[in-house]
Amino acid sequence: MTYPLENLFRPAVERYAAIASLAAASGVIAWPEVLMLTPTAGLLVVTLLFAHALRREGQAQRVLRFQRHLRQPPHYALAANRIPWSRHQLFLGRGFRWTAVHTQRLVDSRRPEVAHFREPAGLYRLARRFESRHEHTRLAWAARLTRQTAWWNPAH
Questions:
Q1: Taking burial as the number of CB atoms within 10 A of a residue's CB, which of 29, 57, 61, 97 is the most buried?
Q2: pLDDT grade, residue 23 (50/70/90)?
């Protein structure tokens, strides 16, 4: 279901519904007789509860992914020989079509209670300061590690 307004600058409360559905499914698996369910009905209820939990967790992940990409957008690199050129147009990157949703997100991002999304995380700032201080010291190897864009690097 889509709504005219969205608020992705909030806690991912969908996760609470997912946890509740998993807990209820666990209860049905453990004690179907307490709920007076036949084995077939119990299996159906458990399947529906798991499906609900998966759906709500997916919605929570959408909110969390949006918030994570606010601080660090996805990596985009293009080799110099792959840049399209023209005498009449300028290539500025991938770009996207700006819509009312983006305007709403921009307005929402300027609210004071979500200011922490506009600032880099503490670990990120600490890593960048470490890199600038130790670029030409014996710890240059560690500075190169913190600069790498990789799944194992929490500081990038």
A1: 57
A2: very high
**Domain regions of the chain by residue span:** 1-73+102-119, 120-156
What are 62's two structure tokens? 């959408």
Q: Closest Cα to residue 144, out of 154, 123, 130?
A: 130
Length of the chain: 156
At residue 91, the 3 state secondary structure works out as: coil
Q: Give per-residue pLDDT as tens, 102-113.
A: 899 999 999 999
Q: Can you give the pLDDT at residue 29? A: 94
pTM (predicted TM-score): 0.73
pLDDT of residue 63: 94
**CA dihedral defined by 107, 111, 117, 122, rounded to 10 degrees?**
150
60: closest CA among 103, 116, 107, 21?
Answer: 21
Q: How many CB atoms lie within 10 A of CB 56?
A: 21
| Pair of tokens at residue 135 | 């670029």
Tell me the C-alpha distance between 23 and 20, whole Å.
5
- The DSSP code for 146 is H
